[in-house]
Amino acid sequence: MPDLLNISPPLDDAARGPRLFAGEVLLFRQVPEAQALAALADRRLRAAFPEADHPAEAQHALPEGEFLHRLTACLAAWRKDTEVAAGYRRLLAALGCDPAATYVDDFALRLQPSHIGRDHRRAKPLHAHRDSWGSNLMAQVNWWLPVYPLAPGRGLAVFPRYWDESIANDSAAWDWEAYKAARGQARSEGRDPDAAYPTLPKPLVAPAAEEAVELLPEVGDVLVFSAAHLHASVPNETGVTRVSLETRTIWQADLAAGRGAPNLDGRAPRVPYEWFRRLDDGASLTAPQPA
Asked: pTM higher than 0.70, yes or no?
């Protein structure tokens, strides 16, 4: 059963990993670099949705199709923004990550509107999943922070029961190479690549909603948890778009030593090391070499 613990940053890699890999969920409170990154996201969103009084209400200021089109463009631009990358580097370093030994996944901005976009790949709520089902990297750590205030029904759900209990899932049939090939073929045939292959593995039977614990960090807080935690989006029916930031990291020393969370039920056939790049110079993560 995981615990949610308030931590004052920084917490270095060697101290952080054992706690996360034992199932703890850490909450860094009111981190200046997190506040700065949320403020940067707010500026980008206000530029993308000038018609709205507030970006979290932009879904009501535009036709649904136009809103989802701009949402997609905004998320893509965020991943390529050099100012964004610099902000994440400052944040992770402030929280105790060593930039020379930390490998990071994409810097993601996520908008989950209320009621609409339930079938849209970039806007839909994510079903219950372990991130480790797709990556096969048990040393992976997830970082999550809100851009605007959350409220019940607009948070992040975790399922504590499944930290030490397996759940049947289709990860054995989810293949990163097949994912890329299916999307490439869809593009060549003029079909929607987002509909060509499942975004991520899923449970064969969804966990009961009453087993979820909803986490509601404040703006400026950072949630940190193992990729092996079963978690999900809370289906948003609050009337306000949930806006959050996230990324995932691997500490090289954990990977080399084989440290990480237990793998209870992940069966994907590949390890996509190339998802992760070194924080200080962008070098790709590679498989650890035998001693």
From this structure: yes
